[in-house]
# Entry
Amino acid sequence: TEAELERRIWDAKQALGDRVLILGHFYQRDEVVKFADFVGDSFQLARAATTQPQAEAIIFCGVHFMAETADILSKPQQAVILPNLAAGCSMADMANIDQVEDCWADLEALYGTEPDEQGRVPVIPVTYMNSSAAIKDFCGKRGGIVCTSSNAHTVLEWAFERGQRVVFFPDQHLGRNTAKAMGIPLEQMPMWNPNRELGGNTEQQLNEAKVILWNGFCSVHKRFSVAQIEQARAEHPGVRVVVHPECPMDVVDAADESGSTDYITKAIAAAPDGTTFAIGTEINLVQRLATQYPQHTIFCLDPVVCPCSTMYRIHPGYLAWTLERLLAGEVVNRISVDESVSEGSLLALERMLAAKP
Ligand code: 13P
Ligand code: SF4
# Structure
């Protein structure tokens, strides 16, 4: 039963004490979040993975790319555990390293490799945290950097100080929304299509490009629409519409604000009592915020429940199992990033952590 499972998790967690650190992403279900030592967005969780060097194991309740990042940033002797190995991210899977290398070869053929008079290289590769370690490594080894939804603007500024243009993997929406907010016109953001010569773009489009986008997206955030925002405004005059920047551009433009899961959480916490919020992000977070802040009216923009199905694969049963195995001296479901890609990934992640806001 649920109560038994809960007891088992508490018992194992208590017995392990400081030997284990449990991290939980905001999108995890409440039955998992309640056991987390730290709950946050992907940037905060990457930082949190470095804070307890004495813990033998970090159990990461989130998705695969987050656990990989925790493994890269934590101490080598610490084991990072993903309770269910099937918890991936469909967006991260949309950029594979072979396609990215092909794209890069084409960009090098087009733009060359020589810096301009200001010392800026032709292209800086930037990858969203939601990508495999192989892509982070690729970026790190070519002078590039990682970003999350909470620092994409800062990271793009960092990149434009060092490069004439950026290629951005894999989320087209975060790339486009961030570049647009920085004043880059849409005509200067061609999208790379890995199946066609020049990515389906003319040479002129690519010559004028400032940000070359990748054709990736989040299937959860893609569901939000301008029609939903219009309906929320009609039904709730004065509603504050806050969406995640993984939403399509027209949705971000129609919303009042956009920001990472941490931004959304803080916006709600800081609002005067009685505020009505329509939120465009994953349902587990929206429902938790609605419960935590009963003084506000908080609902999800999408009336049909939209969970992230892969985040949801972290069932409390898996958490109980990994904790109990650990207590018995066995590490199961360990995520170990191969040495061949961890060096470049670390470089790209450290550049992100050092980039000034
Ligand atoms: P955050 O960086 O806002 O936590 O988002 C991660 C994510 O996967 C959103 O879909
Ligand atoms: Fe990936 Fe979207 Fe799920 Fe985030 S919400 S983990 S981007 S599929």
